[in-house]
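Q: Convert this sequence to structure tokens.
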Amino acid sequence: MLLRNDLLHYPQPSARTVRVLWIDPGQRHAYVYDVAARSAEVELVQLPALLADLRDGRASVLPADPYLMVVSQEMLPPKYLQLRARAWEIIAPLVAQEPDIYDARRRGQMIARATAEHQVSHPTIYRYLRRYWQRGQTPNALLPDYCNSGGKGKVRQSSEGIKRGRPRKNGADDGPGLNADEDIRRIFRVAIARYAASHDKFSRLGAYQQMLDEFFIERRIDPASGRVQAAPQRRAVMLPTFGQFNYWLDHDDDRPPEVARRSSSPGPGSGASAFAGAAQALRGASAVPVPVSATRMTVAATTTAAGSGAVQASPWPSAPGRPGASYQLDVVRAEVQLVSRADREQAIGRPHIYVVQDTYSRMITGIHVGLGPASWSQAMLALANCGADKQRYSQHYGRRIEAAQWPGCHLPDTLFVAAPLAALAGAEWGDGGTLRTNFNLRCIAAEQGAGDWQEVLARRFRLLAPDVAGGADNVVNAVVNATANAAGAPCRLDGVLDVAQFTRIVIDCVLYYNSRQPAPDAATPAALWDWGVEHRGGALKTYPEHLVRCSLMPVATAIVGCDGIHFADSIYTCARAVQERWYERARQRGSWQVKVAHDPSNLDTIYLLDAAAPMQFHACHLADASGVRRHLSAVEMAYLPAAVAVTAPALATVRTNTPALVSFAG
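A:
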């Protein structure tokens, strides 16, 4: 049985909900109104037809009325009551004339008379009627919707020279204040990540004060010496307030999980629940629905001209049918000038971010932050990171994660490399390279295609240079011309972060990207990876982490001397050299050369290669004489004062496809 004001929902052919406005006493017909209509048009329908729709399941009666306006009179402001009374005074005589008010011709005549009587326009009366019929045919349906005014939750656009929000309470002496635009919000995100990484307990006030001390001072980098020159910025008008910092800390949902909201009961969109929900989604990855289809990729053959190293690029691949079938390797240059960990007043240039992404799930499987020009050897460290324990890797940079937040420790069958980066491979490209001989991993050059992970880097912290974030062609130019554009455009982050702190921020970006939904009904990259591993992961390739890393590191020449192994102006020692008395032999017979694998981003440990035992990599650690150079990269060591350097013979860099590495059995 249908009643007046019942809501009927029709899911097909297009979803719509109608309200029963009036039923004929003879139960022959009824008038209904579409609650989503933008006009005041009422439909006349046969009542048996409505009952048949309910009986056959084509429609259903909604158990609750979401449009009904039920409020406490005592809580309504006088202004609301006045507006409601005025509207009800106008339409009460009209809606009382049922069913004439539902007939379009008669309704027009009645509204014309009401317009002349109350001195209001036709659209105003039609708006009142539409609201009255939509919201349950009560006087409260005419209450104003001022609660929807102001765009709650939306970010207001700021204009130059005009401060958003209310004036300051402490007078005009401090000026109007500073707008928290996207650049300032980027500083907030970096400051939050910086403080959370270096403190066991997060303090909002502590993070705010540290941010002012580090980022809101006048700072410039001398182009000749690379020295960072800073002077305190005293004008309060140029500083964001603690209130602004708190507001955006609660507003942004992608902050680190260590940072909780001030509210005791965060909503579903809050940052804490968002991270918890992402982790829960990853733990329940088996419930992710099967992808509708997996597009087969077609790639052109890769040809390498003999002796020229020219590489023919094929199209950037689409998703194959399983995780780990192919990865994509790309590189972008960040717009942040980093400082040395040994001397924080020394700028060391802008880093490159090497990213490896699974083609099937779009999950980022490996990264590497490298200093200096883009190179193939540093790109291989990003590939080595694909086979690393991500929990231990993130913990090294102060980021505690669960295994489900960043799964995957595998190498692919095929590696699609961005064409500009493939051109840097040299002799390592092709069937004779380390990847092919050690891991049976085929490399294919692909045309440049900006990934959606670049958008995360560009928008979350604006880590990418404008030319890189602008598009594929600009990425190519940025990689090829990295040395020419090393200076870049100045920004507030220049001269503050070192490479370890910057890497922590990149890790945050990766975790955010892997756990976010690209579309409302789509699975996250990490969840899709987990589903693919469970149902289609039988062909994944796993190798011992230390063997993958050591075999993909660049190889150079070191000198065995009487006081240790000399490499990169540092002295190393290892257990094998001590056991076999290398240093005594060097004192008696002279020095000799050995091959070592090294990570340019951290020279605390190098690995001695042995042609007689290619599966063994002997770790060599910094000697006490070079202790001041611990935890530094090769670029940072190059900026150390001459007094710190340890003299050593010139070291010649060699290719990484040495016999000791090529004979390593994958």
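The first strand starts at residue 7 and ends at 10.
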